[in-house]
Design brief:
GO terms for molecular function: ATP binding; ATP hydrolysis activity. This protein is an alpha+beta fold. It has eleven helices and 18 strands.
């Protein structure tokens, strides 16, 4: 699965931006230019697929906060518009999904005043011929392509705060919609791990086989136990940890009811340091290691400022793990760190995209309005 492009309009600092994407994507820029809004816009696509888009926008302050706040043209229907194109390489199918959300009209009593109202949605597929619409929604009414290949009206009307893609995905009768939903739901977003004393990453967790790290890192110990005792291979993980922590090794005892882990340092080889004894940077690095080197590899891993709390000596090992993960997963990184961006560029052969402000809006330096970077045009020539 490959996320080929993303478009976002009227979302926070994203007035109108379209990006063609590669296997590894690194976004670097100063504070306040809107890097995290690029990450967040992609995360909202997943929220739409899960049926939580309205709740996610409400949690960040509602539509009044989420809408583009710069100069607006006199548009009758001012909306957040998100659009992605996803290629299923195995089946040679391209999915395109778009969703538009706006405020409730003053005369409309359905829904609360400041929650996002889903205005339009569309999912189409392309298999080498012209695109075929699989689902289209305008207001509460939904049209969907049925078993006979014709667009028919779905019997249930959507509430203004729920997405049709989630409603139809739950119905179980539409394989293309279900396939797209499963792909996007499997993306993993790691915005930051709690590293305080009560962080779930510092606690034992139930010993349940865990092929992927939870986005809050709560099953960290179970992910390590799965690698050590189910797969029985922690060579790459141990190498990354040893490089980052001056020869330290991961200790993962055979779990009983709970899974646990610790670090053993070469200067104290008989002592296992428990998670509560480790520094914030050490715990954060271990969380990133579990995210990037878990038993199962998600199709897309998005990291927002992964360098936070890390000692500079940990950035090279982090780049090594990113390069390893990029062999099986698409990578999206938002960072302040020139050192990390340069290390990823060296290992993965991709140029970081520099995020800037242009006319008050978030933009990528050297990017054309089509989403193609100027240096990519030069490479083709």
């Amino acid at each position: 699965m490959l996320l080929r492009s993303m478009t976002a309009r009227n979302y926070r600092s994203l007035k109108a931006i379209h990006m063609d994407l590669a296997g590894v994507n690194v976004f670097i820029g100063e504070n306040g230019v809107g890097k995290s809004n690029l990450y967040r816009a992609l995360q909202l696509i997943q929220a739409a697929v899960r049926g939580t888009l309205a709740a996610e926008i409400a949690a960040e302050g509602g539509m009044a906060s989420a809408l583009w706040s710069g100069h607006r043209r006199n548009e009758k229907n001012f909306r957040i518009k998100l659009d992605v194109e996803v290629l299923d390489e195995e089946r040679a199918i391209t999915f395109r999904y778009r969703v538009e959300a706006g405020l409730r009209p003053p005369i409309d009593a359905a829904g609360f005043a400041f929650e996002p109202q889903i205005k339009e949605e569309e999912l189409s597929i392309e298999t080498g011929r012209r695109p075929v619409t699989m689902m289209k929604r305008a207001g509460p009414g939904i049209m969907v392509r049925g078993a006979q290949g014709r667009m028919v009206e779905y019997p249930e009307r959507a509430m203004t705060s729920e997405t049709a893609i989630a409603l139809l995905g739950d119905a179980g009768h539409y394989p293309e919609i279900g396939a797209f939903r499963r792909m996007v739901e499997s993306w993993r977003f790691f915005h930051g791990f709690r590293t305080d004393r009560d962080s779930p990453m510092r606690q034992p967790c139930l010993a349940v086989t865990s092929p992927l790290l939870d986005e809050n890192g709560a099953n960290l110990a179970a992910v390590f136990a799965t690698l050590a005792h189910i797969r029985g291979d922690t060579i790459e993980l141990n190498r990354a940890i040893a490089t980052a922590f001056d020869g330290a090794r991961l200790d993962v005892p055979d779990p009983g009811e709970y899974a646990e882990f610790g670090l053993v340092f070469p200067h104290l080889p008989l002592r296992v340091f428990k998670p509560r004894e480790l520094s914030d940077g050490q715990i954060r690095f271990l969380g990133l290691a579990a995210a990037l080197m878990s038993y199962r590899h998600p199709p897309l891993i998005a990291l927002n400022e992964p360098e936070a709390s890390l000692h500079p000596d940990m950035l090279e090992p982090l780049a090594d793990m990113i390069a390893e993960a990029a062999q099986t997963s698409q990578i999206w990184i938002v960072t302040h760190s020139e050192q990390l961006a340069a290390a990823v560029q060296e290992r993965c052969g991709v140029r970081p995209k520099r995020v800037i402000r242009k006319d008050g809006a978030t933009w990528l330096e050297g990017m054309r309005a089509t989403g193609v970077m100027e240096d990519e045009d030069n490479d083709e020539e």
